[in-house]
UniProtKB/TrEMBL annotation:
This is MBL fold metallo-hydrolase. Pfam families: Lactamase_B (PF00753). It comes from Blastococcus deserti. Residues 90-165 form the Metallo-beta-lactamase domain. SUPFAM superfamilies: Metallo-hydrolase/oxidoreductase. InterPro entries: DHPS-like_MBL-fold, Metallo-B-lactamas, Metallo-beta-lactamase_dom, RibonucZ/Hydroxyglut_hydro.
Amino acid sequence: MCGAGDAGGAVRTAIPRPATGTAVDPVALEPVDEVVLTTLVDNVFDALLAGGEGVVRAPLNSGQVLAALFEDGRTSTGLRAEHGFSALVTVRRGTSTTTLLFDTGISPDGMTDNADRLGIDLAGVQGVVLSHGHFDHTGGLAGLADRTGPRSMPMTVHPLAWTRRRIAAPGGDVFELPTLSRRALEAEGFEVVERRQPSLLVDHCVLVTGEIDRTTDYERGMPPSHQAWDGTEWRHDPLILDDQALVVHVRGRGLLVLTGCGHGGAVNIVRHAMRLTGVDRLHALVGGLHLSGPAFDPVIPPTVRALTELRPDLLVAGHCTGWRAQHALAAALPEAWVQGSSGTRYTLAAA
């Protein structure tokens, strides 16, 4: 919903429904010369992780704050970790460079604080892509609006991102998730572009997948406790149809697939990206894969098998992936696996 004053029409537009229209297939995604991806927010910050080729870690002294009990009145804070995800994506093709923000974390100031500590000027962001409407990926929009000021900022979003949702676990408390407000976003200067189908951004160099084709028999989505309001009652919302990924074709290497939570299923998402683009090589998979918790334990083995067959060069499965899946993926793909951490910068260059 878009606020307490909305009624009938706003309720109906937020009802989850099947995708309409045909997919754009194939999509002519132009290859790029370089992608620099910086994780601004993840569930983990580990200042002792080692870097490597194309991987630069944020040091423990990334932030300095006032602290009277230290001799010089200051202390180092490192970066913030929170249950959310946000990544800064800079794409270079020839002499042209564009920077997009993919998701914004859960808190209003977590993403902006980390950007400050990394020396990143968010005024350089040229557009926002939201993976889906869950609040742990959209909470930082308030901080971004404060930081960039009153200017038009294009935002690509699925029209179901405004869906009212809740978690109603059997025998537990009911938690209604904070719902993103389109009206408030537009008042802050965001130019909302709703798309259910694939979108090409940045001179056809960045693909936003739109709705994911569900083709595997094991990636079945969220358990019954995840519900959406259909205008009359709460119903099970397993698919989270607004889930979408960002895709870049690194010249001579293959696809970078960036997910928020990966509610569409990691394997479904990668296969969907390959089908849309006609590129049959997965170079990198980065982001949340939502394999955490008992409901998803059975999904881990077939996901690991499928990703092992896809043989990515880089695999960074963070946020909601869960420790069981992370350990399984790290064991199966040791050459590709890199542990995620807030503040890490990944550089993917053309062959």
